[in-house]
Amino acid sequence: MPRVLMNFQLPNDWVVHFIEADCTTTIGRRTRYFHFANEAEFRAFVGRCNLEDAAEFEERMTNRARGSDYSNLTGEQYKKLHR
């Protein structure tokens, strides 16, 4: 499973993007951003991302409304980020 870093924040809606685990390399030619209008959609998306530390994610999401967490994606999920 490819290991990547998921960054998220809540400026107006939930925004998520992924970069390589080295924290500097983009995945694909450009970074793809995913937007979610509400917390339920965001949580459903994150639930499919196989986070390494779900408790840390919850703390960052609820207390800070932003953060980064490592995720282990399936090969198919990783390929979709390259599109």
Q: Any chance you could write out the topology, listing elements then pairs?
A:
Blueprint: E1 3-9, E2 14-20, E3 33-36, H1 39-47, H2 54-64, E4 66-72, H3 75-82
Notes on the structure:
With 83 residues, the protein is α+β, with helices and mostly antiparallel strands. The protein has one domain. 34% of the residues lie in helices and 30% in strands. The chain has 3 helices and 4 strands; from the N terminus they run βββααβα. The chain has a 4-stranded antiparallel beta sheet with strand order 3-2-1-4. A hairpin with a 4-residue loop joins β1 (3-9) and β2. The longest helix is centred in the last third of the chain and has 11 residues, at 54-64. The two termini are 18 Å apart. The relative contact order is 0.27. The model has no long low-confidence stretch (mean pLDDT 94).
Rg (CA only): 12 Å
Average pLDDT confidence is 94
Biggest sheet strand order reads 3-2-1-4
Strand content: 25-35%
**General form:** globular
Following the backbone from N to C, one meets helices and strands in this order, namely EEEHHEH
Q: What is the terminal separation in angstroms? A: 18 Å
Helix content: 25-40%
| Total number of helices | 3
The count of domains is 1
Count of extended strands: 4
Q: In this structure, how is the largest beta sheet organized?
A: 4 strands, antiparallel
Query: What class do helices, strands and sheet pairing give?
Result: alpha+beta
Give unreliable regions as ranges: none
